[in-house]
Amino acid sequence: MDVGQWAQEEFGDAELGDERRSRRAVMVARSLAAVPGSSIPKASKHWAQTKGAYRLLACQEVTHEALLEPHFVRTRGRCAEPGIFLLIEDTTAISFTHRAALRDAGPVGAGGTGHGCLVHTTL
Question: What is the pTM of this model?
């Protein structure tokens, strides 16, 4: 499957309040998927495409949840099927050491002298 087809399938059904926003979301996803790990300006072919991507992401109706919901639905569907799946995981320490109100947080950092929490995410 090419990146254009993938982007359409994953983000084409995003309910962003206007079908033009959904089309723009597909364009942004296609551009970013074509150059993995790239920034929006580097993945965009033209300044207008970069500006359109930032306008889309700044729009109040375009929430993180609304943008990613169709992708999440499709991912859950694929994971319900038999197969082998790669789950990428990472643990990050969030330090609140300099926040006096959070002194009762757990130990983090070198030697556990900081205060905060560990966040373990899986993609």
Answer: 0.70
